[in-house]
Amino acid sequence: MQRVMISRRFLLAGFAGIASIPARAQQMDITRATAFVDRAGQDLVNAINDPRLNQAQRRDKVASILRNAIDIDGTGRFILGRYVRQASPAELQDYQKLFDEIIIRNLSARFGEYRGVKFSLGRSQQRTEEDALVSTLIERPNNPSFTLDWRVADINGQPKVVDVIAEGTSLRLTTRSEYAAVIQRNSGRVASLLDAMRGQIAQLAAREGG
Amino acid sequence: MKPFATRFLGPAALVLLLLAGCATRPPADDPEALQEFRENNDPFEPANRAMFEVNEVIDKAVLQPIAEAYRDLLPQPVRSGVRNVLGNLRTPTILTGDLLQGNVTRARETLGRFIVNSTIGIGGIVDVGRRYDVHGHSEDMGQTFAVWGVGEGFFMFVPLLGPTTARDLVGFGVDVYTNPQSLIGQGQILDVWNYTRIGMTVVDTREALLEPFDMVRKTSLDPYSTLRSAYRQRRAFEIQNKESPSGAVAPAGGVGFGQGVMEPK
Q1: How many Cα atoms within 13 Å fall on the side-chain side of residue B3?
Q2: How far is C-alpha A57 from the geometric centre of its chain's CA atoms?
């Protein structure tokens, strides 16, 4: 009799344990996302403010941190949207390469200017089951502080940034509409987007050189 | 003050829109393209793009240089004071919005800030409310319409005003007409005051947008569609009252370039 009781209790405890797993996994997710953004953000801030690095070294360091933290492949596909299927395999491959270069150059150039930057975690909130939104506060000397929200998703078991949202404006959504407009205005050719991207990279490179 | 902009620019823009024709609707056998067309909700895109180019020319020749000179000539505390005064002068519009949206908490904040900032803050020059953690926020009639359930309508680009939608442009007109400063009478002094206020609002707003605009021009492959998307996203954010407290009260209300307005730097 007692044994039955015990096993029943044991079973109940077991069920309770199973039932709590999804909840705990979600809880984990946001904690993990926050810890991930915190670590990547501190790494970035340290690289930006490191006085031992010259400009080129700093840019490389920032780029490598960003490459590790961002899901460039998935974000690139999201931004290309329905044109992923219209692009030829060669075009898609080109696109991914160009997108990687543009996003890294753009972000490195932008963050590279943030000397003396400080960053802290704000409130974070879970958005959907797949990703979490981690809010951060960016402070720079002699500049008003602002918030940046990082959308973090689990990509093959690793937390990765899939979007940056500044005051309600999502980078991947604006870029998606920008790229779609370029393709549409050139009679639906993905190749024209690739040309425009190449042109932009050349411009960015020229500016960095000067 | 007789609102010159709504009286003459509105009809002029409409005529131009009709002259310039419409965007081509994608064929019915391409559902994804159709969906995108509906989401963009930009039936007058060719005309809007033309207006955008007009705005670029005016902006580069006049507005941007003035905004840059303004930033170079006046020290940050002065520009901060100007922004605070202009934000404070927008109180009637903001308070009306708070009340029409039934947001008593925000209405109380707006009223409290106005009283404190107008007195202790010397006519609104100092944002005392912020120091007591009562941060300012923006409201306008376009946002109120949205809260009431009015859809945004088609997208428009109006030179000098920037990106907007049918709903927000009507809301802007209502805000201009119901502004008490345009109702309290006529006279030269009042006219001068109102033109000064409007002029300062344009300069201050453009100064707040110097970096964001620069960034869009430098990094976007198609600035027009970037602004269109950013405008919509930013408006959705403002309508849900999610602006971050680090922002300042935008003197022009919904500035609408997909950017919040910060303290000047």
Answers
A1: 17
A2: 22
* Token pair for B258: 């997909």
A18: closest CA of chain B, how far (Å):
37
Would the CB atoms of A178 and B246 count as touching at under 8 Å? no
How far is it, in rounded angstroms, from Cα B54 to Cα A63? 38
Query: Is-contact B42 B228, C-beta < 8 A?
Result: yes
Q: Which of A110, A181, A193 sits opposite B225 (nearest CB)?
A: A181
Contact assignment for B225 to A169 by CB distance below 8 Å: no
Which of A115, A119, A110 minimizes the C-alpha distance to A49?
A: A115
Instruction: Work out the pLDDT band at A193, boundaries 50, 70, 90.
Output: very high
If phi > 0 it is left, if psi is from -120 to 50 it is alpha, else beta; for residue A168 that is left
Structure tokens at A23: 């909840």
Burial of A150 (C-beta count, 10 Å sphere; 0-12/13-18/19+) = buried
User: For B31, how many CA atoms within 13 A lie in the half-sphere containing its CB?
Assistant: 0
Q: How far is A145 from chain B (nearest CA, A)?
A: 6
Tell me which amino acid residue B38 is: R
**Residues A27-83: tens digit of each pLDDT:** 437 888 899 999 999 999 999 888 898 888 888 899 999 999 999 999 999 999 999
